[in-house]
Amino acid sequence: IVCFRDKDDAAHFVWPQPLPVKTAQQRQEDIARIVDVAHIVHEKYYYTPEKHPHYFVPFHKDTPMHTPRVHLGEQVTEMNQFYQVRRGMYVRKNKRNVCPTLTANMGTGGHNVPIVRTLHGIRKLTPEETLMIQGFPIGERYFLPTTRGKPLANNAVYKQAGNAVSVPVVSRLASAIWDACTRATP
User: Fold this and answer.
1) CA nearest 55: which of 95, 36, 78, 83?
2) Average pLDDT over the chain, rounded to whole?
3) Distance separating alpha carbons of residues 9 and 181, to the nearest angstrom
4) How far apart are CA 4 and CA 32, in angstroms?
5) How many CA within 13 A on the CB side of residue 30?
6) 34 Cβ contact list (under 8 Å, min separation 6)
């Protein structure tokens, strides 16, 4: 919702034009710029059978055919793709090559956490990566939030990323609002 106090400003507002649709290859390149699949991140981000046995349930011949079963090692197969475990019952690859919705509870073990395959295993996104997906220029001119000079807890950063509005969207809307207000006749 875009609102104006002045009717003249509102009359000059023009919604930003839609961006061109990216190809699957372009989206995979975007993912590769954000998610570093070659380097190891802290072990706490990785899903392993030892730490998460419920995400590595083997297939048994006696299991009924349509019984929900999650086995990340078998189901998360491609790099530069986003996956998520849905309701703890099945794994879904995001076929549109975009990140699934970032939720405020992803740092507390909530469901639907975006996961990726890397050269070193299957892991969830780091707090930095979630902010970068939202468009924050981490490492360029923006750094992870702190409080009293100390880094915020990861779950607080995940919550910020999940509650954030995408920076490029806000930027385009703000530019359109600015244009409307500066073109309005006094």
Assistant:
1) 83
2) 87
3) 5
4) 39
5) 15
6) 129, 132, 133
Residue with tokens 């395959």: 117
Query: Given pLDDT bands bounded at 50, 70 and 90, which one contains residue 175?
Result: very high
129 pLDDT above the threshold of 80: yes
82 touches 100 (CB < 8 A): yes
pLDDT over threshold 80, residue 108: no
What is the C-alpha to C-alpha distance for residues 64 and 41, in angstroms, rounded to an integer? 37
Task: Please determine, for residue 186, whether its predicted confidence score (pLDDT) is greater than 60.
Answer: no
Task: Kindly report the number of other CB atoms within 10 A of residue 73's CB atom.
Answer: 15
CA atoms within 13 A on the CB side of 159: 8
The DSSP-derived string for 31-59 is HHHHS-SSS---GGGEE-TTT-GGGBPPP
| Cα–Cα distance for residue pair 30/42, rounded to 1 Å | 22
